[in-house]
Design brief:
InterPro entries: GreA/GreB_C_sf, TF_GreA/GreB_CS, Tscrpt_elong_fac_GreA/B, Tscrpt_elong_fac_GreA/B_C, Tscrpt_elong_fac_GreA/B_fam, Tscrpt_elong_fac_GreA/B_N, Tscrpt_elong_fac_GreA/B_N_sf. This protein is of the alpha/beta class and 159 residues long. It has helices at residues 11-25, 27-41, 49-73, 124-129, and strands at residues 7-9, 75-77, 90-96, 99-105, 117-119, 137-141, 147-157.
Length: 159
């Protein structure tokens, strides 16, 4: 069995994933089961598109249920760093390519609880800004090989 990775989440993201899991295990699972039963009652299953579609949807739902169970089991609630220091759970304002942009630093799972785009700490830009302080200029190598400079304008805790 593969080693399970810790999933860093804000409390809000954790709560939203728990809510989604409850819905998928409850009402949504029941709805799919009812559609399968109704399609099965129509007769010949080999040519029943509704039955096949409902079974496929059931498989996707169960896959997502399993994914959510693993994420929630391995979740760790973020303790964002102090204001002014970039880390997991920081909302950063960066000045790059002549404009200011805002991102949350952390796993893509944080996206469920924020309207901001998320930067992975493992990405080239994420590695460059992790631990940087407000006002610092850092640089990273883009996938195309270009060196890109970024200034940290602001870093505040997300939670």
């Amino acid at each position: 069995m593969a080693e399970e990775k810790t999933v860093l989440l804000t409390q809000e993201a954790y709560d939203k994933l728990q809510k989604e899991l409850a819905w998928r295990e409850g009402d949504y699972r029941d709805e799919i089961t009812e559609r399968i039963a109704a399609a099965r009652a129509e007769g010949d299953l080999s040519e029943n598109g509704g039955y096949q579609a409902a079974r496929e949807e059931q498989g996707k739902n169960e896959g997502r249920v399993n994914e959510l169970i693993v994420k929630l089991r391995n979740a760790e609630i973020l303790k964002a760093p102090k204001a002014g220091i970039v880390g997991n759970g920081s909302l950063v304002t960066l000045y790059m390519a002549g404009r200011a942009v805002q991102y949350v630093v952390g796993s893509r799972d944080l996206a469920v609880a924020t309207d901001y785009d998320v930067i992975s700490p493992e990405s080239p830009i994420g590695q460059a800004i992790m631990g940087a302080k407000q006002g610092e200029e850092v640089s990273y190598k883009a996938p195309n090989g270009r060196e890109i400079s970024v200034t940290i304008k602001e870093s505040i805790p997300l939670n």
